[in-house]
Write a sequence for this structure.
């Protein structure tokens, strides 16, 4: 075998759908006497790690391409016309497709020698050449080319003319499969030859004798059993006859079995081993596979390559249709058929196990025969879980109440997280890192480690972690917050910060006057009410305490001159506990409500008679005396020098229009002592002098003025 390969395919894999020429393949037909013989292996031209697929676009009855990218013979090439044959090879890579044009040249190494008679004008073509059974003999040349074969014509000698031979060599005909034929062909010799008998030569295979019978006298061939195209497509019979000299001569009978569509089409499955796990392929009509969901996270993922075949005829002439035998919408689609009757099953969208775990694909494969036949297949696809989902708590925050004084290990709350993944990927355990609580890692039940005291802690929070447990993927976690509120129990009495309170209020207060406030505290934060503790009838009528805020009020005006001090008790109540009683000491403050009275000179006479003829400067005259019944006298005495100092006492000026004060001649000290203090003379002579005095009383920023008018009569 001569095969010429000048270039390799590897550098051309980057091409995209362009037609490329491939070096011619030169072969001798005599080197391929049988079918299924290897002509060329294209696979060796590719890197072993490359993912690709070979398709033969050209339909040929002489050549075919197997799944390993090898070019093989469909039949013996010895009877094929020695011509040039053109094929198109398609190489499909994940990212591109390259098409090669291949030329196969059939050429015999040695010339073909054909004996002829001198008067012979035509010869039988010894090949299966298209539309050509006979060839006219050139008139002069005895060598010529028939296709790529050199033909030499040899004229028979006289001795050669006596040789017996059959009319045809070979005989060729078609018979339909599954039928019995009687006398379907008569074998004859040339007219100058008289054979002794006809028989099937011993060189025939044993099966020929089981299917074909030959009448030895007439040369008629008959079928003993019907032929099956799917078993043998071409039969070759060797027929022998003997001449009168008992010298045997031979011819061939070639029977082409005509196919009828009696076999349904078939599918063979090819799965990408790096992504697909085959669970069951013992039944080619019911395939079960599994694929990890991480492998189908995008569209157009190839699930399988499906190769259609049909025993009825060559793939060159059969057309297939593959589709889903269901009206249900599925996230898959079928591409093809391609030139080698291959279909591709791929995804149309992302597949998620958490949405759908299993898919059942019902496929129907149909040929184009008469009648049309179909085959039915079922493909079950299991989506295997990947740890692609984190646990999710049912609540982002768990709000929990628990009463104080609980028992240790009291259940506080149970948290729960869901994980959509399966098996270990979806198994969740829990963790807590907090001194006050503990958690059951399997159930999520959280318990108290201590007995809570509301007076020590009112609330706290902590985080709970949920973890899954994948076999091979990364562990995923989630967190939630638990907020715990301690519910108070009334286990503490109210407390006052002190046992005795001192308050004061001025007498003559208005009704319901505010005195002061007492406030108790309760560790339980209970609502408190205040009340008088066993008050006397007198206290109950004079005082009250606000039940809500502990404010103390005097119900009626108080008079210090009647009672200057009161004592009573108050308690606080939280609804369950009473406080200790506290003592309230209330002092009644005096109010300057008594008008001072002049007692000297006197209260009824405003004239002072002094028996002196004169005074010298700084001589003491007398002391002005004033009586005040208030608890704390709060007044002062002032000597009046001018009328404008008597503002608001117009009665004086109204009755004494022409009055003149002699105050500039006198001096009054702080102790109300009156002295002579004339600046004009060293003596004060006898006479009548008019003096006015003003009593000023101060109480809470209010000033009261009382006027005393005196006439000093100095007479001898």
């Amino acid at each position: 075998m001569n095969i010429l390969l000048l270039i390799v395919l590897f550098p051309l894999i980057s091409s995209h759908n362009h037609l490329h020429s491939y070096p011619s393949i030169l072969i001798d037909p005599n080197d391929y006497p049988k079918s299924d013989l290897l002509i060329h292996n294209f696979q060796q031209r590719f890197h072993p790690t490359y993912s690709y697929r070979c398709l033969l676009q050209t339909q040929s009855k002489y050549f075919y391409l197997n799944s390993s990218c090898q070019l093989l013979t469909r039949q013996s090439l010895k009877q094929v016309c020695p011509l040039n044959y053109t094929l198109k090879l398609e190489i499909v890579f994940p990212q591109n497709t390259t098409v090669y044009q291949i030329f196969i040249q059939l050429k015999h190494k040695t010339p073909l020698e054909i004996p002829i008679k001198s008067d012979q004008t035509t010869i039988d073509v010894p090949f299966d050449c298209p539309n050509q059974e006979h060839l006219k003999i050139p008139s002069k040349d005895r060598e010529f080319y028939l296709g790529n074969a050199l033909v030499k014509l040899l004229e028979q000698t006289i001795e050669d003319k006596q040789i017996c031979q059959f009319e045809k060599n070979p005989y060729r005909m078609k018979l339909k499969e599954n039928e019995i034929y009687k006398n379907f062909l008569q074998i004859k010799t040339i007219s100058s030859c008289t054979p002794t008998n006809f028989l099937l030569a011993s060189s025939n295979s044993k099966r020929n004798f089981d299917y074909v019978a030959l009448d030895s006298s007439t040369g008629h061939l008959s079928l003993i059993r019907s032929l099956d195209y799917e078993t043998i497509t071409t039969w070759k019979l060797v027929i022998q006859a003997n001449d009168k000299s008992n010298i045997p001569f031979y011819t061939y009978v070639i029977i082409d079995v005509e196919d009828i569509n009696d076999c349904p089409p078939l599918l063979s499955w090819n799965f990408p081993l790096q992504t697909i796990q085959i669970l069951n392929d013992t039944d080619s009509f019911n395939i079960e596979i599994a694929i990890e969901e991480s492998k189908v996270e995008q569209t157009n993922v190839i699930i399988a390559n499906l190769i259609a075949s049909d025993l009825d005829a060559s793939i060159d002439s059969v057309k297939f249709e593959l589709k889903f035998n269901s009206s249900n919408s599925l996230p898959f689609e079928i591409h093809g058929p391609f030139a080698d009757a291959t279909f591709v099953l791929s995804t149309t969208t992302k597949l998620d196990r958490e949405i759908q775990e299993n898919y059942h694909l019902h496929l129907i494969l149909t040929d184009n025969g008469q009648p049309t036949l179909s085959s039915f297949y079922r493909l079950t696809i299991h989506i295997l879980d990947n740890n692609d989902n984190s646990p999710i708590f049912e609540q982002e925050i768990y709000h929990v109440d628990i009463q104080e004084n609980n028992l240790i290990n009291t259940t506080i709350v149970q948290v729960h997280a869901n994980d959509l993944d399966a098996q270990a990927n979806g198994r969740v355990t829990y963790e807590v890192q907090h001194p006050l609580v503990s958690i059951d890692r399997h159930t999520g039940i959280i318990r108290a480690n201590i007995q809570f005291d509301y007076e020590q802690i009112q609330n706290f929070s902590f985080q709970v972690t949920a973890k899954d447990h994948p076999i091979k993927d990364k562990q995923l976690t989630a967190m939630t917050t638990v907020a715990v509120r301690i519910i108070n129990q009334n286990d503490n009495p109210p407390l006052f910060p002190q046992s005795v309170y001192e308050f004061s209020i001025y007498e003559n207060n208005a009704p319901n006057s505010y005195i002061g406030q007492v406030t108790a505290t309760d560790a339980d934060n209970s609502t408190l009410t205040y009340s008088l503790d066993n008050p006397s009838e007198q206290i109950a009528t004079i005082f009250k305490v606000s039940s809500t805020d502990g404010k103390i009020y005097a119900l009626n005006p108080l008079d210090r001159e009647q009672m200057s001090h009161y004592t009573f008790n108050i308690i606080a109540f939280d609804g369950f506990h009473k406080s200790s009683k506290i003592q309230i000491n209330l002092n009644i403050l005096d109010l300057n409500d008594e008008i001072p009275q002049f007692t000297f000179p006197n209260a009824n006479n405003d004239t002072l008679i002094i028996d002196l003829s004169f005074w010298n400067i700084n001589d003491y005259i007398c002391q002005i005396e004033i009586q005040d019944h208030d608890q704390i006298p709060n007044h002062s005495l002032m000597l009046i020098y001018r009328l404008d100092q008597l503002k608001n006492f117009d009665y004086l000026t109204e009755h004494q229009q022409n009055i003149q004060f002699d105050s500039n001649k006198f001096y009054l000290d702080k102790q109300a002592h009156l002295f002579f203090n004339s600046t004009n003379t060293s003596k004060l002579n006898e006479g009548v002098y008019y003096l006015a005095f003003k009593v000023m009383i101060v109480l809470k920023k209010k000033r009261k003025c009382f006027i005393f008018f005196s006439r000093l009569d100095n007479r001898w």
